[in-house]
Specification:
Blueprint lengths: L5 H12 L2 E4 H4 L5 H11 L6 H12 L2 H6 L1 E4 L5 H9 L6 E6 L2 H10 E3 L6 E3 L8 H6 L1 E2 L5 H21 L4 E6 L4 H13 L2
Parallel strand pairs: 1-2, 3-7
Antiparallel strand pairs: 4-5, 4-6
Amino acid sequence: RAAVCKGSIAQLVNKESGIHKIDTADLLTVEIEQVKQVKACIDADEDIPGDVLGALVKERISRKDCADQGWVLVGYPKTRDQALALQRHGIFAKHVVYMEAPDMVLIERFMGKRIDPQTGGIYHLTFEPPESPEVTRRIKPIENQSEKFLRKQLLHYHRNIEGIRAAVCKGTTKIINADQPKTDVFAQVYHFLCQQ
């Protein structure tokens, strides 16, 4: 779900435990045939076929670092087909967290979000401003930062979430209210992930 703070929470989980954050956007930095297919879908504003991205996820989580320390898949799957494709590739999450917040809260978060291109740090103009004037000068809006873009993302989410939940039958699931301070959301997510 866009602007729900999933990337920030995943970074905190990684920092606290060493569990690797896997964002599908990070998988697209390699020039291989599957990546070309994914980029073509993105350029055409189409859903990415589940088996294409599923193969990339499977390759990534099979590496030693993820096998040894675990992984957190961030913002994926986005459709029922993608969720089922993960299962076809033998990928079953031990824990599944759904972070929820009202759309208006997410719009406010999204419009104020900024990225430091030098460090990758994530900030918000109101809720989490940069700590120094130097960083304040560097931060930039995120790509596609418009309310129209976000509303389209939220519509896609609302159309697909029930199918995703129905398809993700393995693992323990938890819905967490993300309309609260990030430290509280992190504490709830981390506590849940530490459960056996």
